[in-house]
Please model this.
Amino acid sequence: MFYYLFDFLDKQFDVPGAGVFQYISFRAAMALIVSLLISLVFGKRIINLLHRKQVGETVRDLGLTGQLEKKGTPTMGGLIILSAIVVPTLLFAKLHNVYIILLLLSTVWLGAIGFLDDYIKVFKKNKAGLAGKFKVLGQIGIGLIVGITLYCNDEVVVKEKVQASTTVEVVNGTQQISQLAKYSPDETKSMKTTIPFVKNNEFDYSSVLSFLGDNYKDWAWLIFIPFVILIVTAVSNGANITDGIDGLATGTSAIIGVVLGILAYVSGNMVFADYLNIMYIPNSGELVIFIAAFVGACVGFLWYNSFPAQVFMGDTGSLALGGIIAVFAIAIRKELLIPILCGVFLVENLSVMMQVAYFKRMKKKFGIEYARENRLLKMAPLHHHYQKLGMHESKIVSRFWIIGIMLAVLTIVTLKLR
Model:
């Protein structure tokens, strides 16, 4: 909203300083600050409200150190995160931007699914919460909307490189050769995305259907839309599973958010996109404002969610965090980097799948008692395995964060590592 207000003031009345709102960097910084303030200032009020409403976590005795002490800690704290993302975005982003609209819709949609799940658990006293099939149906729904929009909307375009001009300079007696790519003046629809570790680092979804003949590109949606649904569902569930100990999902999401912000900025800037030899995506730079609010919300929430947690985000926050990361990565065409960037989420997801698969195999082969006594992990997901081994949860969180930072750096490095 402020963008439109100050743009009007700048053009109509030439108000000094109003033009600063044209800069993405300024608006991103303001979104980050406001997001932090909302999390810190209003977060405490929301926690007190949750206390008064007796919105406490129900904890089962799983034999984990310190687990029972968490009983009664307010949950549904994801409301703090959601408000700290949505409000700054509405204030500082260009609201007519298709990418911003998609991210806001995804945030509210998945937050509503998580809120309904938490509501059933807390107020209806049903520990199972929202049935899994309805959660998945909701995730498929938003994935379908995102996929169709990105495929069909005329504003979702790229600029293709058409040629590169070579310049030769002599600096201190040394010849330096540089190339500047030229982009097509026309914006084109494309199903290309960035693929890591490959010299020509672009993959076209439609190429999978090349066997269909000359018009195979018209059928790219058959690959793209189901893939979007898969990514949104997988990453959303991955964040949900990771949210098991104080600060783990929140801190990991903040690290991922910083990298996504960098990728969005360079993808939306022709100079940086040329230097890194990645696709230039017009208007995607606006997403930096959204992700700045996202990072601010996560960091601000950590003030209350770090050990010992004063509030849990619940599914209200965790489903939304994962979904936001997935949709954001797809929007800037970096979704194939998710297995690296979201490696912590991936491993947590895989640990549960492997535990279940191994248990079923052992049960079938040797019986239920043997399967119970010889599990693959002490407990799934992976962070609980380390708790069972006696490691303090603060140490587990810190080490997972370190791994997350290493994966974040590797993700950025892949842009030049081919």
User: Anything to note?
Assistant: The chain has a mean pLDDT of 90.
